[in-house]
Each structure stands twice: as structure tokens, then as C-alpha cells.
Chromo domain-containing protein (Solanum verrucosum), 44 residues
Amino acid sequence: MKTKEVASVKVLWRNQLVEKATWEAEEDMKKRYPHLFASGESSN
């Protein structure tokens, strides 16, 4: 197997009853929520 790096972001999901944190692929989150990444890029 080859090693592969995937940039991830920690996402805090909130609704009225539950608060949960998950790790999501940065690329997927940028596609779904581009406005959250508009102010800057990662420092890598």
C-alpha cells in the first residue's frame, strides 16, 4: 500500500439536541461550504 495524505478539517455539528465533532475531508467541505474557506487558505 502507498501512503497518502488527505487534508482534514474538524467539524463541529450542532443542532438543538446534539453537538458532535467529526473529521471531514477538506476538499469535500470546500465544495459543500466554500464561504467558510473564502477568508483564507490552510498554511500547509
Remarks:
- The longest helix spans residues 26-32.
- Residues 30 and 41 are 11 Å apart (CA to CA).
- Helices lie at 26-32.
